[in-house]
From TrEMBL:
Organism: Podilymbus podiceps (Pied-billed grebe)
Annotated Pfam families: PA26
Source organism superkingdom: Eukaryota
Chain ranges passing through the membrane: none
Name of the protein: SESN2 protein
GO biological process, one term: regulation of response to reactive oxygen species
Cellular component, GO annotation: nucleus
MF (Gene Ontology): L-leucine binding; oxidoreductase activity, acting on peroxide as acceptor
Amino acid sequence: QDYTWEDHGYSLINRLYPDVGQLLDEKFQVVYNLTYNTIAMHCGVDTSVLRRAIWNYVHCVFGIRYDDYDYGEVNQLLERSLKIYIKTVACYPEKTTKRTYTQFWRHFKHSEKVHINLLLLEARMQAALLYALRAVTRYMT
């Protein structure tokens, strides 16, 4: 909560490696904002709330929580099987199986499931960067 990508990580990485912060931020934003505005067979759906819940749940799994986010959304939007899948892929990728993949969102397209994977892997990368950059900040001060 006291060290975020937007407020701290981005600027530090840009100071250490010019332009890398911008490239990483664009990469995170592309995946975070990617949508076809569909869920399963429903078209014209605003998926931003779901995408935010997935991103914040991944960060939460790694001990990063934000004061300005209502974590009740995570429990409302992410069913248990999806949470299990996210935690398995993010924390124990070697234990991910086809069965784990097929157990969540059974009626959804594979492209939607792939998007979930992209979201959780980018959120995981950002969380790891936050921990590393925070350590660098502490070392520098």
